[in-house]
Specification:
Oligomer: single chain
Order of helices and strands: HHHHEEHHH
Strand content: 5-15%
Number of helices: 7
Helix content: 40-55%
Shape: globular
Largest sheet: 2 strands, antiparallel
Distance between the termini: 45 Å
């Protein structure tokens, strides 16, 4: 059965999931943030089948999140290095770490985001770059962008009507 592509849907969440929505992809990116670059490092860390790892790495390269850099000609071997697009995914992984610790780690956190200088555990939040205010559902809502189609505009308009109800 052929998987549906989200790549052309007029939704940034759907388009993002097209690139990183498969769980192995997110774990590969996590390991890349931890400094892993080589096929055998990813395979050992994740316990993933070589064929699946090859497919996921190829997909991440095609999507522009990783870049191949040849480090050996004989035999041919590549490093997989984060691109700017890949590095921009780091806050998403940090948010998943915090969310996972908060909701799915009854034994306690196994990984935490910590301040490099002080070692103090961070509690990441999403902040509006323009105002510096934390983004909460009380103060912010999704709104139609300039490329929104009519269906997207109708879907987002429902937010206002639902919030206006007593």
């Amino acid at each position: 059965m052929q998987r549906k592509s989200f790549g052309t849907m007029p939704c940034p969440v759907a388009r993002s999931l097209e690139r990183v929505g498969e769980w192995w992809s997110i774990l590969i990116l996590r390991d890349a943030f931890y400094g892993l670059t080589r096929f055998d490092e990813f395979q050992k860390s994740l316990g993933i089948a070589p064929s699946m790892l090859t497919r996921r790495l190829n997909s991440l390269v095609e999507s522009g999140l990783l870049e191949r850099r040849r480090y050996s000609e004989k035999p041919p071997r590549d490093d997989y290095v984060l691109t700017e697009i890949g590095r921009d995914f780091r806050p998403v992984v940090w948010s998943l770490v915090a969310w996972g610790n908060r909701h799915f780690a009854p034994e306690g956190a196994s990984v935490q985001l910590v301040d490099r200088e002080t070692g103090v555990v961070a509690d990441p939040i999403l902040v509006d770059r323009n105002s510096g205010r934390p983004i909460t559902s009380r103060d912010f809502k999704p709104g139609a962008g300039p490329a929104a189609d009519e269906q997207t505009r109708r879907r987002l308009a429902r937010i206002d009507t639902q919030e206006a109800k007593p």
